[in-house]
Each structure stands twice: as C-alpha cells, then as structure tokens.
C-alpha cells in the first residue's frame, strides 16, 4: 500500500494550564484555535479526525470548517486517563508516585488511571483505521503514543521531545503486510 501523511496536531492551550489533563474535558482558551487553522494551511489532507474532548474537537471543527474537510470524532485519540490525578496540578500529587509514573507508566499508572500500554493499544487501533492523508487533532500523550507505535520508540524516547500547545508533527505512514503493524517516519515538527 502507498504511504500516506499523518499530521498530528496538538490542541491549543486549555482554559487552565499546568494541570494533569487527561479525560477531564477542560475547554480551550479563547482564541486557541487560530494557530491550529494556520498550521493546517497547506497540509494535503483528506479529512480531520479528533479526540472527542472539546479542547481538541472544537479546534478540529474550526479546521474542518475553514478547509471544507470532513470531520470525524474518535475517542481513541483522547489523552492518557490520569484517573484520580486528572485535573490536578502535578505539584499537588504524591512526588514518589509521580516519579514512579514518569519512570515506568505501565507498571505505575496513576491511581484509577490508564497504563501506557493501554494508550498505545487504542491509538494503534485508531491508526489502523486511517488510510489517507489525515490531520488528527489530539493531545500530547496520544501524539507520543502514535510516534511510539509507528517508530518503536519507548516512552522515554517519545517523552524526550517537547510538544507545546499547537505543535504539528507530520509522519509518513506505511501499512504493514498481513498482520504486520504500520510503521512511520517523522518528516516534520512545527511549533
């Protein structure tokens, strides 16, 4: 199968920053979507896909409206579920638990939260359903999971690069044959 472009676009700044925002539906700050629309200019995409959380889906809707692209909402592109930590500042969390989480998010997920491998699984399944140039408006964790799934990089490697609000990460995706997973090559990062 011919490769296609996957443009991962992080949502704009939420109303409140500095929080562990996973599945908490924190809205975007006023004016947060203008940078997303600018980043989407010139991308040869056929559709826009978005997390169902409003900080991402509202921006995706703005891009779809501005570019006359179809929009599809897909909850598999949500951020990692931070469970009991969701919506709290990291400074308010138990330091040892937070350190253990960052060190090994699969063995030490947030209380009542999601494991890194679960995020990889759902984002990997979402990627399987893509087959044409697509803009995905999502979250930093889901974007890192996509990079991990497509390149084989572990969580340490994908958490080592910065993805500020509004960052655009473009990946060329090749479909695997039979039961082989898709693979990808990062072709651009714009902030």
UniProtKB/TrEMBL annotation:
CDD domains linked to this entry: HP_PGM_like (cd07067)
Protein name as catalogued: Histidine phosphatase family protein
InterPro entries reported in the protein's UniProt record: His_Pase_superF_clade-1 (IPR013078), His_PPase_superfam (IPR029033)
Pfam families: His_Phos_1
Source species: Alteriqipengyuania abyssalis
